[in-house]
Write a structure and sequence with these properties.
single chain; 152 residues; alpha+beta; Aminopeptidase; 8-stranded mixed beta sheet; 4 helices; 8 strands; 26% helix; GNAT_dom; Acetyltransferase; NAT_camello-type; N-acetyltransferase activity; transferase
């Protein structure tokens, strides 16, 4: 069974960042350290963990982009666990946390080859493509969030 939790120990954070690096930076030849950004201290961090082995199989972070607008980033799932619903599970968890924080909109910068994935989760393109690093382009995608009382 996969559970979602926040990293709390040094070892958990080390494994959390290692997965981000291995999935999001290493395949594109980016150096260690590029898996982190200036928003780390301001963010809520979440990880998908195998309950039986405690292996971290997915990660994502959430922070406030501007009042009422949440931004999630660094969504990564270990290659052996991709296409098993873990990314969707992490995004759903981030959406729920964003609602709890009172965000009305949640968004992310998606690589152009992942926009279909996010569109299936209810996100829409709301910006123009821009270069992220090297030849990688990203586009801002966002989703309006229903607040808990609206869903009742």
């Amino acid at each position: 069974m996969i559970i979602i939790q926040s990293p709390t120990t040094r070892d958990e954070f080390k494994a959390y960042y290692d997965l981000r690096y291995r999935v999001l930076r290493e395949p594109w030849g980016q150096p260690r350290g590029t898996e982190k950004d200036d928003y780390e201290p301001l963010s809520q961090h979440f990880m998908a963990v195998r309950e039986d082995t405690r292996e971290i199989v997915g990660v994502v972070k959430l922070f406030e982009k501007e009042p009422g607008v949440g931004w999630f980033s660094h969504l990564a799932v270990a290659p052996a666990y991709q296409k098993k619903g873990i990314g969707k599970m992490l995004v759903a968890h981030v959406e729920e946390e964003a609602r709890k924080r009172g965000f009305c909109v949640l968004g992310c910068y998606a690589r152009l080859n992942t926009t279909n994935y996010f569109e299936k989760l209810g996100y829409r393109i709301a910006g123009l493509p821009t270069h992220y690093f090297g030849t990688t382009q990203v586009v801002w995608m966002q989703k309006d969030l229903e607040q808990p009382e609206e869903r009742a």
